[in-house]
Amino acid sequence: MIGPAGENLVKFAGIRMSDYERFAGRGGVGAVMGSKLLKGILVWGTRDLSKELVDKAKFMKVNSDIVKRIATHDTTKVLHKYGTNVLMNIVQSIGALPHYNFGGTGKIADVTPVSEEYIKDHYPTETHGCYNCPIACTQMPTVKSGPFKFSVTEKYVKQEYENTWALGPNVGSTDPEANLRFQKLANELGLDTISLGNTLSMAIELAKNGKLNLDIDWGDAGSLEYLIHKIAYRDGIGDELAEGDYRLAVKYGMPQLFVGSRGQGLPAYDPRALKGFALAYYTANRGGDHLEAYTPTWEIFGVPEKVDPFCETQECIEKQARIVKWNQDLFAVVDSTIFCKFENLMPNIDTEKDFADLYNAAFGWDLTPQDVLTTGERIFNVERLHWVREGKWVKDELPPRMREPIPDGPAKGHTASKMFDEGIKVYYKLRGWVDGKPTRDTLKRLGLEEFEYLL
Ligand code: SF4
Questions:
Q1: Residue 210, class by beta-carbon neighbours within 10 Å (0-12 exposed, 13-18 middle, 19+ buried)?
Q2: Between vectors from CA 135 to CA 359 and to CA 341, what angle results, nearest 5°?
Q3: Whether the Cβ atoms of residue 173 and residue 218 lie closer than 8 Å to each other
Q4: 135 lines ligand 1 (CB under 6 A)
Q5: Per-residue model confidence (pLDDT) at position 343
Q6: Does 138 contact ligand 1 (Cβ within 6 A)?
């Protein structure tokens, strides 16, 4: 269902699910529901799909083998104990944690107070999981006293790395209690936490540049809480901020402050220091998206192979372009199947093979792992053709701030320029694209001739 933000057509309103405050967060889908006066959807069913599996015994065997591999892996233990916010200290330690709307230095703040290690030590936290998940990574802390304490009815908040970063270091704050309160508010009001943080940090930068008439500084918790309410109800200044970071920057004549792609701001990794994102973020069809290809899997966790996040040799650029394309194709299928992506962090998971085995057992098909990837490639191409049809945001572009060097910290001096400028050539070649769109030959190769009229 949507909250006040969706009802008031906030451009970054999300849709909340029943599984512990999980969201379809990004892209403003909550505003789409709001525009149709649709508050929520209740779903139930009586059909037992397991009876319709072509080879139920095989399906159950493949399934239990996957679950066993996930359940026994070390990554599962870490995710279960700390959730995604275990990344806070890790990403900060390599200089890839953005601060102050990506304008800060590589390592300006001690982020320990908003790390999960600290939060679990200092605040009562429940651990849950999505339905039937063997990992159960959902961390739900609460704040029991002080100015940011939770009410009795809103006891716990589902807290994640992205949310903690967006409403913490990105707005210049490392106050854990204010941070948890902001996450709770965003979830209650139905706001995408990432774009909310991007918008608040943009507003602060515009105010500090004398463009926006707002008395606010980095980390000003009282003003930030006030603005979150204003945005959800489009009240006063909130009406302008509800249009999001991209439109704010353009309106006030400072588009160079926007750090995103296709009008959507970036998540919690600086692509100047995790260079795979210099390709993954800017080729993402949804724009500003870390979930179409998640490059820290190989740059931080070394899965399926370790790639140096700083390396910019031609060999590294070609490798990153290959892995980004592979991951985008794979994740297009994973998204379509609504399978959790965290399983892909496990070195002992072979997702395209596992998917082929599951589909074959379920439907009696004869898919190979390569067929699964080709299906994803078709999806990715059709998504891009959406932009071709809309006549905008077809070309992949790197925003100006990502061409400026990181001024300090372990990634000092790094930019995203080389990986993007050289990598995009390799990437387009691999995809069979020119200037951000598929060629007729590519559509033919993928059996997508029906869309040729769009070119
Ligand atoms: S399904 Fe994914 S997000 Fe949900 S609890 Fe399991 S690992 Fe976490």
A1: exposed
A2: 50
A3: yes
A4: yes
A5: 81
A6: yes
Q: What is the CATH number of domain 56-82+270-455?
A: 1.10.599.10
User: What's the rounded Cα separation, in Å, for the pair 47 and 339?
Assistant: 21
Give tens-digit pLDDT for 238-268. Answer: 999 999 999 999 999 999 999 999 999 999 9
CA distance 4 to 360: 43
In the chain, which segments carry CATH 1.10.599.10?
56-82+270-455
Distance between CA atoms of residues 192 and 21, nearest Å: 12
For the CA of 134, the closest atom of ligand 1 is 6
Q: Where in the chain is the domain with CATH 1.10.569.10?
A: 93-258
Nearest CA to ligand 1 atom 8: 137
Measure the CA–CA gap between 141 and 155, rounded to whole angstroms. 9
- State the first-to-last Cα distance of the chain, in angstroms, to the nearest integer: 37
CA distances from 250 to 255, 316, 376, 394 (A): 5, 35, 34, 19
The pTM assigned to this predicted structure is 0.96
Is the previous residue joined to 304 through a cis bond, with omega within 30 degrees of 0? yes
Q: Which atom of ligand 1 is closest in space to residue 133's alpha carbon?
A: 6
**What is the assigned CATH class of domain 93-258?**
mainly alpha
